[in-house]
Design goal:
Layout lengths: L8 H16 L13 E5 L6 H17 L3 E5 L6 H8 L7 E6 H10 L12 E17 L7 H10 L4 E5 L5 H13 L3 E5 L3 H10 L5 E4 H9 L3 E6 L24 E9 L4 H15 L2 H10 L2 E2 L4 H22 L5
Parallel strand pairs: 1-2, 1-3, 5-6
Antiparallel strand pairs: 3-9, 4-7, 4-8, 4-9, 4-10
Helix pairs in contact: 1-9, 2-9, 2-10, 4-11, 6-11
Length: 330
Amino acid sequence: MSSHRTLPRRTVLAAGVAAAAASALPAFGQAAWPSRPIRLVVPFPAGGATDIFARAVSNRLGAVLGTTIVVDNKPGAGGSIGSDIVAKAPADGYTLLLATSSTHSIGPSFAGNKLPYDAVADFTPVSHVGNAPSILVVPTGAPGRNLREWIDHARRNPGKLNYGSSGNGTVVHLTAEYFKSAAGVFMVHIPYRGTALAMPDLISGKLDAIFDSLPSALPHIKEGRVKALAMTSLKRSPLLPELPAISETLPGWESVTWFGLYGPRGLPAELTARLATAVGTALQDADVKDRLSRLGIEPVGGTPQQFAAMATADRAKWKKIIDERKLTAE
């Protein structure tokens, strides 16, 4: 009987990435790449979830690669401006994108050919970096002691309430539309260039609601500037165990933002593998894990192939919601 056994697919893929990274050293050794700082484009404003995540990981990732990673915020158009900058950059490993569900899952179905880039063809997937739930936050003086009472209030006032988002076609916008459909409420959409820019209007009462990410909403919640109603994950967060999940009121409802690292199209496979390995190493750092945990972000990591498969499945989920809600970029 043979002593050989079949390894799990995840193990085989991880081994493949490690082998590819090792084989990359002659072509992309420390003397050749990286020999200067790497630009990490964040397609949303400073202070938002994507920016917070980028800054939590970039220092350690740079240390692993032996260089400096410079976070460059390029917000606007639901994340498409910053994404397009990377799509058109040289595939040399010095310009990378921290993408999200907004830019690479929702955008392709929502905006279609209006996007200046092709979310699949114009990028090289590197690694699924992490996931973060969002929180439905409202002004401190909003009616209702809990989500059910707030939904009842919204149902009694169709069209009188509004909600902010990080732009048309972003995960914040689509999460709200998904919620409206499930809860049977109608609210007016007011897009911003990022939730960090919408938060002051929520605090002042000009906005009635935002589905903000846990990392960017948490400081405002803890300081009592806004009222949290519910989490968008299926289960409660250890950071806010007293805050119910929306699924406790609307069974099965869930919306989680993913973050992922992309390079431009044509990024060499050896360099891509080395970056993916470096991301995994950075995410295992104790300080990074602790910082992400305190932000409510789940680190993921993994191979380029696993990341590409996850993004494909997520695009299918949001396309179904976009089609059902008849949402367009108009």
